[in-house]
Every structure is written in C-alpha cells, then in structure tokens.
Amino acid sequence: MDFRRIDVNLLVAFDAIVSEANVSRAAPRLHRSQSTLSHTLARMRATSGDPILVRQVRDMEATPQALAAMPEGRSIRNDSNGIRRWVRDRIFQGVVA
Predict the structure, then answer these.
(1) Which of 7, 17, 88, 93 suits 54 as a labelling partner, its CA being 20 to 30 A distant?
(2) Distance separating alpha carbons of residues 50 and 74, to the nearest angstrom
C-alpha cells in the first residue's frame, strides 16, 4: 500500500460505503452523487489493493479486509475530526477571516 496516497477524507466515504454495502445508498448519506462516490471507491481500491465491495446476487458485500479495517478507520476518522476541532478552537481562536 502506498501510504502517501491515503486521504483521511476517504475514511468518511469508506465508512458509508462499507456500512451501506451499496454506493447508491451511501451517496445521499454523504451528499454526493453516485458517480462521485464510485470514483472515490475506485481510488480506495487502487490505494488499498482490495476490492472493498464485491458484487453478490442482489447487492454488494464488504470484503473481510474492509470489515476488519472499519474499527480502526473510524478511530482515525474521529481522531482527525478532533484535530480539526482543536486547530479551529485553539489555533484560529479569535482570528478574523
């Protein structure tokens, strides 16, 4: 895996896509188009080397690797949100835009 290509923002999309097991259902949850989320899924697949979702008879199913990555992915996403809040509240406190 090429860690230089990882975008922390992809973790939000990863969580929605794997949770829904369907790009079309995940898209409105993220206020994105299905096409945009399909491109995001392609980026995640290229970065991870894992298909993340595989087609089944009626729907998609998360791969074992994707399911195993969910808890840590959520943790990293939550940590990054905490860092953003800290920067906003501590660093840019009182800064006039």
Answers:
(1) 7
(2) 18
